[in-house]
Amino acid sequence: MNEDKTLKYLTAAYGDLIGHRPCACVVTFGCQMNARDSEKLTGVLDQAGFLLSDSEKADFVIYNTCTVRENANTRVYGRLGQLKNYKKKNPSMIIALCGCMMQEKEVVETIRTKMRFVDLVFGTFNIDRFPDLLADILRRRVSDHDLRGEKPLIEVTETVNDRHESLPKVRKFPFRTGVNIMYGCDNYCSYCIVPYVRGPERSRKPSEIIDEITTLCDDGVREIMLLGQNVNSYGRKLNEPVTFAQLLDRIASQFPDLRLRFMTSHPKDLSDDLIEVMASHNNICRHLHLPAQSGSDQVLKRMNRKYTRQAYLDLVRRLREAIPDISLTTDLIVGFPGETEEDAEATRTLVEEAGFDNAFTFLYSKRSKTPAAAYDDQIDPETAQARFDKLLETVHRTAMKRTERFTGTVQTVLVEETDRQREGWITGRLESNLIVHFAGDADRIGTFVKVRITENRGFYLIGEEASS
Ligand code: SAH
Ligand code: SF4
Ligand code: F3S
Question: Among candidates 33, 12, 9, 29, which has minimal Cα distance to 21?
């Protein structure tokens, strides 16, 4: 029997044991990378014969975890407590954990010793093993007729492999998805755990990326986000080096009807070539997520970000010169070790000077293994919170002012879903990624619609379909 058939057979046998077709729920924490990985987990479960469900009371529940900040971990532990209760009522339930948190030894140890209700654990480096591990878990249940399982099956590896791209996938949205152009990160920003849990930077070959995009377009995808922790360093280590600007240019030319986005851009590596490519293709969204992290040179230096406030602002100026209507968004960290009142103020004024459409603000979180965790000048939580609140107020005010420019304009919107609040309305996204609600039929979902923006509500817009 081939592997697919074995898994289908085992799923069916598990179904016989529990008395109904088993259903599965995939819960995603964290970034777009995890969201794309979850489409693979869902694909495997779908192909195995599970019914897909949004309910965490399902027979198989998997959490695809994130560990970028401590509160991401806390959230997972909190929700696991809830799952444990569900499992008490339904002992045949299978609970699985994967993703970035599982690449941390302490986390796995906690699960091994304190969370014996968890059945399966694997990491980001061996997600390709999911079909086999799932088969093993089901086999244990079926052959032992033991609905409660034994001890957790834990398989976390230290060596990376990227064989997971060949897993089947079920997309969250049929019309849009992410495509990994690279994995891992070599930048080692001093606060960041990602390089430790995602491994060193590896780029996929352009031909592989283009083949995947071709398949996705044939399958009805209208918008793709090219994914990498730092897309601007794409391709440097390939046998035949290719720059991100060249890759993007090629994709944008080859797929003129596809709307393209990318994330994330590290300011230190953003080239003028890339700005030119963005300016010269109208299927590349006029939006750039450009994490600044801080507006203070001394903080940036200790963060190991390798650019200055001035270099960042110069980049913003060059972007706006080349693409006047560009939307810029950013990430900012508050309360990094050693941050003074002046440093915090410099971050606040950077928001005003750069004119972001939006900024994601984070309280600094100490992560194990990272150099900044060992700095002895950690900021006390109250001070950090006060700075955070002040920054957030500036971000809101600046964003409201910036997004006002859309009012009265006609924008191309990719419709995503029916509006949850208003009957007969639908919701879509502008090139800038901002959400707009407008009256329309559900049959427009997955299509591009021209929308006149009538009102700016700060975090979202109201509009009406523009007669063409
Ligand atoms: N590769 C991307 C970001 C990945 S993590 C980049 O370089 O921009 C997403 C965001 O989480 C980061 O931009 C940063 O703002 C935030 N972040 C990462 N580590 C953090 C930490 N230890 N504490 C607080 N925020 C953090
Ligand atoms: Fe983390 Fe820096 Fe890499 Fe982004 S570039 S993932 S912030 S180490
Ligand atoms: Fe989180 Fe891992 Fe992404 S730590 S932000 S899910 S790469």
Answer: 12
CATH of the domain at 458: 2.40.50.140
**Mean pLDDT of the chain, nearest integer:** 95
pLDDT of residue 80: 96
Which atom of ligand 3 lies closest to the CA of 29? Answer: 6
- Determine whether the shortest distance from the Cβ of 323 to ligand 3 is under 6 A: no
Q: Which ligand is nearest to the CA of 72?
A: 3
Task: Let me know whether 240 and 371 are in one domain.
Answer: no
Once rounded to an integer, what is the mean pLDDT over residues 184-201?
97
Contacts of residue 60, Cβ cutoff 8 Å, sequence gap at least 6: 22, 23, 24, 25, 45, 50, 93, 94, 96
120 and 235 assigned to the same domain: no
Can you tell me the distance from the alpha carbon of 124 to that of 101, in angstroms, rounded to the nearest whole number? 9
Number of domains in the chain: 4
Are 437 and 416 in contact by the 8 Å Cβ rule? The answer is: no
Measure 282 CA to ligand 3 centroid, in angstroms. 30
Q: What is the pLDDT of residue 70?
A: 96
- Say yes or no to pLDDT of 299 above 80: yes
354 & 221 share domain = no
198 lines ligand 2 (CB under 6 A): no
Q: Domain check: are 417 and 370 in the same one?
A: no
Is 26 found in the same domain as 68?
yes
pLDDT recorded at residue 2:
73
Cβ-based neighbour number of residue 84 at 10 Å = 15
Whether the per-residue pLDDT at 150 is higher than 70: the answer is no
Same domain flag for 9 and 140:
yes
Instruction: Answer yes or no: is pLDDT of 373 > 90.
Output: yes
Domain identity same for 122 and 14? yes
CB 123 within 8 A of CB 102: yes
Closest ligand 3 atom to Cα of 193: 4
314 and 271 within one domain: no
Q: Is 331 in the pocket of ligand 1 (CB under 6 A)?
A: yes
pTM above 0.85, yes or no: yes
Ligand 2 center from residue 267 Cα (angstroms): 11
Residue 146 has pLDDT above 70, yes or no: no
Q: 389 C-alpha vs ligand 3 centroid, how far in Å?
A: 25
Domain assignment of residue 164, yes or no: no
pLDDT score recorded for residue 142: 86
**Is residue 163 one of the residues assigned to a domain?**
no
Q: What range does the domain containing 49 cover? A: 3-155
For the Cβ of 68 lying below 6 angstroms from any atom of ligand 2, the answer is: no
Ligand 3 pocket, mutate which of 36, 37, 194 (most atoms under 8 A from CB) = 194
In this structure, the residue with its CA closest to atom 3 of ligand 3 is 31
Measured from the Cα of 187, ligand 1's closest atom is 7
- DSSP-derived letter for residue 146 is -
- Residue 441 buriedness (CB in 10 A; 0-12 / 13-18 / 19+): exposed
